[in-house]
Amino acid sequence: QVQLVESGGGLVQAGGSLRLSCAASGSSFNIDAMGWYRQAPGKQRELVATITNSGSTNYADSVKGRFTISRDNAKNTVYLQMNSLKPEDTAVYYCNALLRYTFGRVNYWGQGTQVTVSS
Length: 119
What we know:
Layout: E1 2-7, E2 10-13, E3 18-26, E4 31-39, E5 46-52, E6 57-59, E7 67-72, E8 77-82, E9 91-101, E10 104-109, E11 113-118
Parallel strand pairs: 2-11
Antiparallel strand pairs: 1-3, 3-8, 4-5, 4-9, 5-6, 7-8, 9-10, 9-11
């Protein structure tokens, strides 16, 4: 099992920046990938960005060029640098870790951190 603890959310004006962090603890040696998802009120949870152990990244089209995901493998921590924030980025942001087991892969989720962008 792994525990994910997020931090860095808050209220920011449009055009501003925030940096989210997510630290993984527990049995984190078999993490294949980590990432960020978000869920706005009344909407489904959606992918924001992911990063693999080798550093390969994937971004939602809506955040490309504005958000950057990075990872410190030594600290088992993933970051999401969010620049040029827009009101439509307002959501609860969830950290995700994909763990590899002999029987398959399991997703773990953090508790979520609120990001609010005012216009």
